[in-house]
Amino acid sequence: MSEALRVLEHVARQEKLTLSYQQADVGGAGIDRHGQALPASTLKVCEQSDAILFGSVGGPKWEKLPPAQQPERASLLPLRKHFTLFANIRPGLLYRELTDASPLKTERIPDGIDIVCIRELTGGIYFGKKETTTLADGDVQAMDTMVYRKSEIERILATAVTTARARKKKLCSIDKANVLETSVLWRKTVIDYIAKNAPDLELSHMYVDNAAMQLARNPNQFDVFVTENMFGDILSDEMAVICGSLGMLSSASLGTGKNSLGLPFGLYEPAGGTAPDIAGKGIANPCAQILSAALMLRYSFGLGEIATRIEAAVKKTVTSGTRTGDIAFGRPAVGTKAMADAIIANL
Ligand SMILES: NC(=O)c1ccc[n+]([C@@H]2O[C@H](COP(=O)([O-])OP(=O)(O)OC[C@H]3O[C@@H](n4cnc5c(N)ncnc54)[C@H](O)[C@@H]3O)[C@@H](O)[C@H]2O)c1
Ligand SMILES: CC(C)[C@H](C(=O)O)[C@@H](O)C(=O)O
Ligand SMILES: [Mg+2]
């Protein structure tokens, strides 16, 4: 986050913009300093802001807390729900020059990867009824329910249509309609919605297990794919690794809310987590956070040109060989700060 803020401050200086931001504790920092993962003061700061640039939460230190109090469930999910951020846009981009960082064979992705995951973010099994009960026979039973309404599916489809129209007009909807009732509704809603509202799109459907395989086999057969919350969580991590590293995967979460500029209010965060295995060593890849900041400038501040400039600087830095360990693969690696320095130099 500190490197992303340095990049933002740098572009603000260059463009003579005033960037006004407040930092607020969330997740483990919220628990440690305020006794709650999402302190009321933090929520207030978010409500008064035009956008949220989110770090990552969670980690071994808080894993022993009751599940409902842990950072992920008690801060990130409530934030998504509070602002109805139902549309999670995760671009899966692997530069041609970086194909060696992908576990896929270069022959399969000679031009890199360029796909987009649209994940429904405020419904499904994440937010359905949850319960753990001890049964009469002493056995313990836990339950999570997956619930979707047609209207929830339609509103994420609107985002998917806009995204697909701005690209190759090709949309794949991913579900498990051979097993799940929610997926049967999902597929029917997709068919009806696209026929009525976007007949210009090339629409396909795929079961999620096959999609997981197809992503690894030939990712560029997709252009934009849209899916429910948990499938999107899992497929976006797979997408991240075939695109080189979770450290490169940014994301934007949007709802219907508008900010004081009349633009979409959004939460912008890397798709990855707190990377406990490398935390504190100064070697994490800052690109996902920096690219998330670029998405924030584009969607919530209407500063698309500056966002494109940041994206180009990240690409130039990585493709010219300056890389953190997660994407270095045998080349000399730089640390987090040096990576951001190089990006700033390219800006
Ligand atoms: N948005 C979020 O806040 C978010 C997202 C995912 C996971 N988490 C939380 O993070 C914690 C760790 O989860 P996990 O280990 O399953 O996932 P993770 O994403 O933190 O790490 C998975 C792997 O990817 C690597 N990685 C991730 N980001 C990287 C980066 N920027 N640079 C280099 N390598 C990077 C890690 O080193 C690790 O090997 C858990 O508490 C989890 O709940 C939070
Ligand atoms: C941390 C966790 C709650 C979160 C999710 O499952 O949505 C993360 O994995 C993500 O992909 O943003
Ligand atoms: Mg995830």
UniProtKB/TrEMBL annotation:
Reported cofactor(s): Mg(2+); Mn(2+)
Residue span(s) of domain Isopropylmalate dehydrogenase-like: 1-343
Cofactor: record remark: Binds 1 Mg(2+) or Mn(2+) ion per subunit.
Pfam families documented for this protein: Iso_dh
Gene Ontology BP terms: L-leucine biosynthetic process
One cellular-component annotation, GO: cytosol
Reaction equations catalysed: (2R,3S)-3-isopropylmalate + NAD(+) = 4-methyl-2-oxopentanoate + CO2 + NADH
Pathway the protein takes part in: Amino-acid biosynthesis; L-leucine biosynthesis; L-leucine from 3-methyl-2-oxobutanoate: step 3/4
Keywords (A to Z) from UniProt: Amino-acid biosynthesis, Branched-chain amino acid biosynthesis, Leucine biosynthesis, Magnesium, Manganese, Metal-binding, NAD, Oxidoreductase
Top-rank taxon: Bacteria
Enzyme Commission number, as recorded: 1.1.1.85
GO MF terms, alphabetically ordered: 3-isopropylmalate dehydrogenase activity; magnesium ion binding; NAD binding
SMART domains: Iso_dh
Enzyme class: oxidoreductase
NCBIfam families from the UniProt entry: leuB (TIGR00169)
The protein's role, per its UniProt record: Catalyzes the oxidation of 3-carboxy-2-hydroxy-4-methylpentanoate (3-isopropylmalate) to 3-carboxy-4-methyl-2-oxopentanoate. The product decarboxylates to 4-methyl-2 oxopentanoate.
Subunit structure: Homodimer.
Family recorded in the similarity comment: Belongs to the isocitrate and isopropylmalate dehydrogenases family. LeuB type 1 subfamily.
Name the record gives this protein: 3-isopropylmalate dehydrogenase
Organism: Opitutus terrae (strain DSM 11246 / JCM 15787 / PB90-1)
